[in-house]
Specification:
about 220 residues; alpha/beta; 6-stranded mixed sheet; about 20% helix; about 30% strand
Length: about 220
Amino acid sequence: MSTETTLKIQTFALGPLETNSYVLWAVNGDGAAADCWIVDVGMWSKPMVEWLNEQNLTPSRILLTHGHGDHIGGVEYVKEAFPAAKICCPVGDVEMLRSPEKNLSATFLMGITAPEADEILEPGQALTLGDLRWQVLDTSGHTLGGVSYYCPIAGVLCSGDALFRKSVGRTDIPDGDHERLLNNIRQNLMPLPDETRVLPGHGPATTIGAERTDNPFLR
């Protein structure tokens, strides 16, 4: 019997901005789920919670790529459904969880907040999902503390709002820094293998190779 661990991914586009929220789970060689995470949680997250319950998946972590309101809008609902799930926030964006002004939701009269982080993450850390090792990469620039999550074995990168198909994250917003974002993408993402699948915070998936060739911001 194979003992190899594989990664499964389910995507939900949630909330008015269709924020991509990813359910990641590791499956053992016997077909059993070893562990489950959620990466970013958009508003109106009830369908994702219902799906998790139907699949008998219990997330151990809620990983945030950054603290903008559209990426944390459903965190409170998910945390109530799965109280043991640890809210994991990049160190530079911790204050955004409790402040609609800082997470920019006040701009849209939404007043979004999320519970305080259970675990504060910094670039360079490693996390394990089952037997799969993930790296926390610095992709700040869209926000002060934005990060991406990369699994070399699975060849998957959750890039949040740093890198999109043929685009990059906005920096014409409070705490945005265009030069910093591009430098982090070039230094920390572009060296990854061409076939690395990029799962962005909005829109379709892409690959590092495609963005290295076709992304006008990176030429």
